[in-house]
Each structure stands twice: as structure tokens, then as C-alpha cells.
Amino acid sequence: MISIREIDPADLALFDEWYDAHRAGAVAGREAPLVGAREALGFSLRNPGPLKQRIPVGAFEDERVLGAMLFEYRLQDNLDTVEVEIDVPPAHRRRGIGTALWQWAVTRSAQLGRTIVQTEVAVPADPSPGAVFADRLGFQLEHVEEHLVVPLPYDDLRLEELRSTAGRPDGYRLTSWAGLCPPEHQQAYADLHTAMDLDVPTGGMTREVVPWTVEKLEASEVRIDRTHLALVTMAHTDAGEPAGYSLIYLSRGDVENAQQDDTLVLREHRGHNLGTHLKLANLEQLAKHRTTQRYLHTWTALTNAPMRKVNARFGFRAVEQHRELELRLPSLRPAARGLILDPDDRILLVRFEFDDGPLWATPGGGLEAGETVIEGLRRELVEEVGLRDFADPPHLWHEEVVAEGHATGYDGVLNDTFLIRTDHFDPAGSMTAEELRAENVHGMRWWTLAELDEHDGRFGPRNLPDLLRQVLTSGPPTTPLGL
């Protein structure tokens, strides 16, 4: 049986196993993948910053990690979005592991009140497993970039040819540094970062651009410097006005890859070969600081024709497409429910009274802020029926109901249901009868499967008798069944 749970990155052995699954899934079928180094990702997860929360999530079978997910969301801006990366090694695909990880992401997104899910997929060629999976989930393609590489060390003959044809950067001066930005350039460098965020093509992706300040720049650079060496070249006019910059990262934990990140020339300074001069100067820095790296990677939007021409002159070769996708979710109230069975396979149900009539459903209810699904399940069952002290239960069903009237202020409900085997007991929770009635609960009782089959009223889930019969006949599913 597959179970989904968060990884504690401070548990180094468990993190290593999670990272192995993450990397194996991410690199499969790709010629020149660039995956965050183990040390850099581990440091980031163990030392969270103030701007973003990153949660590693694993898919487990018998305590082995078979799949990995990185679930991220920003804390001060872009408060409607989450970012998800799901990686399943080829040997474990087509078993529902990716779907189970996705269901966890949907539930956590609902808990956070976020309705926009973003992801990135590397596509060496169509059909790509990641792209097919995202399409099946309903993601929409919003932006496409080329992922390009050039071998290192860089070709000296090509460098000389580029220098000879580029001419002189008349009217401009270039300044280069490695590591943290010198204080005298911080304000200009922060302003250029803001300009880059506003200028970079993003297609239809939902993005809130937040201006860079010197304080934000300092905090970001100090954090990045722990795991990467930044190589920067900045262009100023002879009058001292910033005109552009280029940035390369050398990972301190990846011995094979370097990353050409930003290259920006402000619009009023374009047409002077300044982008070429910035890249040439930064390649000189790379030659000084490079150790064993064999590839320099970069990404360019298909719509950015000028930069694609520059990359071609520098010898970059496209190895895959980098697709950015987005999915808008309905606003659903997340809830945890228990399929509670006694030794005689009787099921405990509660009776809800609504305007359109009664409904018998599994006990449970909405999650509170900060709760995990299992924590919410335990609290709800203590309050509603008085059940406590049960082991972590298997996850049976993941049900998304989009309809009016299920939860005030929401588009519907999201029910995650778990199987709980227990001795027979008389249900009596910590809530009073008045409190239960305030939540439309007007009774509870044990049912046999035969009684469910004979009942002509409504159940939640709607096909509860058939679902229970399947559980009693075959046991819980390997991965949660989507209803």
C-alpha cells in the first residue's frame, strides 16, 4: 500500500532516499538534465527562508520511498499560487504513485486557500510522460522555453571570433565580481533584478512581480552564496547609469553543470551588442572559477528571438523544451473522514439533515488551519463520535465535490476518507447535542452492508454501499481511489 507523507529533511538518511527518488524521476529520458544538487536542496529545506515554504513529500511503500514531490508556496506575495514538482522513477511508474502525490497537493492547496497550481515540465520529445500526466490532470500550457547547453571548457576559438565581431562597447563600462554584490552596486543591481522580472517573458503564467530592494537582494545573495557561487557582470553607461547585467551560477555541490541565469539589457540600451559583451565578460569569469563543470545551461523563451540569436552565436544547442503549466482549482473546503468498521464489518455513519432531506455519511469534518489531514481526522472523530487512539489509517478515497450548498463560502468540498478498524463502541463525542445540531448532525448508528443495500435514502459518498463492498472484498486500494 502506498502512503503519502512529508519528509523531515533533518533526517539525513530519509532525505537521501527521498532525493534519490526525486533525482531518478527528474533525469529519466533526458540528455542533459539540470537537477538541484543534493547538498544545495538539503540546505534549502533544512534552513527555510522568510519568503517561501518548501515541503518535500514522499510516496512510501513498506517504508521505501518510491516517489517524490516538492511542494512550494510563497509567503509574502503570489498568495493564490503553489508550485508542484512530482518525480517518480521509471521503475515505479503506472502504479498511481504520481496521482497519490497529486491528491496530497490538492488537499494541501485547499488547506492553504490557494487555487492556482503551477508546474514545470522538461520535454525532450513528445510524447513525454510528465507532459502527458500534467495534461491528464487538466494543466494548461502557458509558456515554453528552450533548454540549451554548451560544452565546457568553452571553445577559445569561438570566444576570439565573438570578441573580434562584437566590437567595443563604446559608451559603456563593464564591472565583474564573484560572490556577493559590492555595496556600491547594490541599489543598481536590485533595480536591474526588478527590471528583469518585469521584462522576462512568462506567457500566461500568473505572476505578481514584487520590486527588489537592497535588503531583499542582500538576504537572497547571502542565502544563495551558501550553495552557489554567483558570477556577475554589470554594464553601466559612461555617465554611471545601469544598463544591464549577466549572471552565472556555479553550484558548490554539482561538479558537472554551470547555469547561465539572467541576461538583461534595458530596452533603451539595446542595439549596441551589449548582451554579447556581458556574456563574453562573464565567460571570462567562468574560465577563472570553473573546476570540473562540463556543461553550461541556459533557458530562452521561444518568443525571445533576439536572445535566441545571441545564444546561437555562442554555440548553445537546444536539448529539450521547458514547459510552464498552470491549473486553476475550485475553492474547496478540505475535510477528513473515517470509514469506521467494527469486527462484524458494520460501518458507523452520521445523519445530516439538510433542506433537501437527510444524508447518511462517514463521520469527520473540515480541517483547521495548520492541521495535517490525519491530525484533523483524529480531532474530528474525538469531537463527533468519541473515537481516539487508533493507528495511522490507510487512505481509501479522495473525493472532490464541486456543487453549491456543501460549504458556505466555498465552491464545494474535498473529502479524504481513511479506513479505521476498531472494537464496537457506542458513539458519543465531546460535542454536545446542540453543537452537533449546529453542524446539521442529528444522529448516528452502525449499519450492516445489507442494511445499506436496502436503504432508499442518500449516502455520502453517493455509491457508499458499492464502495464498502469493494473494501470488504478486496481490502483498501494500493493508492487512494479518486471519486
From TrEMBL:
Keyword Hydrolase: yes
Keywords, comma-separated and alphabetical: Hydrolase, Transferase
UniProt-listed Pfam families: Acetyltransf_1, NUDIX
InterPro entries per record: Acyl_CoA_acyltransferase, GNAT_dom, NUDIX_hydrolase-like_dom_sf, NUDIX_hydrolase_CS, NUDIX_hydrolase_dom
The keyword Protein biosynthesis is annotated on this UniProt entry: no
CDD domains to which the protein is assigned, alphabetical: NAT_SF, NUDIX_Hydrolase
Any one GO molecular function term: hydrolase activity
Cofactor: Mg(2+)
Domain N-acetyltransferase: 2-164, 183-336
Residue span(s) of domain Nudix hydrolase: 331-470
Record's protein name: GNAT family N-acetyltransferase
Protein's organism: Kribbella speibonae
Taxonomic placement: Bacteria, Bacillati, Actinomycetota, Actinomycetes, Propionibacteriales
